[in-house]
Amino acid sequence: MRGAGVDMYDLAALNIALSGTVFAGKLHFSPITDSTNSDAQEAARSGRAHGSVFFADEQLAGRGRGDHTWHSEAGVGLYVSVLLRPPVPLQRLPLLPLAAGLAAAEAIHSVSGLIVDLRWPNDLLIGPRKVGGILVEAKSARGAVDYAVVGLGINVHQRGFDSDLAAFATSVDLETQQKISRQDLLIALLESLEREANRLADPAAGITIPARVEQASTWIRGRRVEVHGPQACTGLTAGLDEHGFLRVQTEAGLLIVQTGGIRSAD
Asked: Which residue from 45, 111, 160, 195 has the highest number of Cβ atoms inside 10 Å of its Cβ?
């Protein structure tokens, strides 16, 4: 049983705070679920509307990119997935995780003052440690995006991590030495995500996303990295192309990395 002072969600207050957004009246909270992304995908297949939000206090089978597990202890993290039906062509879909990263970084900064570093393609860092991650799962139809589920996991109240994560993970509370409201963070996140989704849908604004990610990241240009995945290599990052793919200058030449992850090679 939880004691006083536990950071619980107030759904009525959330809907009021989000009344000017596409998310108002579309909030779906579960105390415990296997995965908010799975919940959102199931809802998408059943025709649920653009802007539906699925969030939970605890996930039993939370996952990150590449089928990695995402530790989702009750009451300490923000676990949320948003169903979007963006009016964008399929070739612009790789920009969505980057736009979500910009939204998450803005939200964390607005409620905590912390500066978030974006590690391509989907990691949220504070200094050298990971504070959150993004998982986008989508379905296409006739060359366009039918739906996209944007899943975000952010460490908020954790005060410690298992030994295998301690050197690599952090939380918002650890970095601020304060208790940050998950409700405030969720509101800021959804407001920022709506702005970024609208920019993505606007061709003129959407093309600025790679440049904005470069400005928000220490990893995108001039960083020696190891690329993991089907395009494994080592080299110096050289910016993003117009699709949001990572340019890496290797000994064999310039490689455009479309999928995978990066780690520092220094």
From this structure: 111
DSSP 245: P
pLDDT at residue 158 tops 90: yes
> Total structural domains in the chain?
2
Residue 208 sits in a domain whose CATH number is: 3.30.930.10
For residue 252, give Cα distances in angstroms to 127, 160, 197, 234. 31, 42, 37, 10
3-state SS, residue 149 = strand
Same domain (yes/no): 63, 188: yes
Strand partners, 144: 89, 141
Report the DSSP beta bridge partners of residue 221. 238
Q: How far separated are the first and last CA of the chain, in Å rounded?
A: 46
| 34 and 134, same domain (yes or no) | yes
Q: Is the peptide bond before 94 cis (omega within 30 degrees of 0)?
A: no
> Does 129 reside within a domain?
yes
Q: Which domain holds residue 22?
A: 11-213
> What's the full length of the chain, in residues?
266
3-class DSSP state of 165: coil
CB 6 within 8 A of CB 178: no
- Other CB atoms within a 10 A radius of the CB of residue 254 amount to 10
Q: Which H/E stretch holds residue 19?
A: none
Is 0.90 surpassed by the pTM of this model? Answer: yes
The confidence score (pLDDT) of residue 2 equals 43
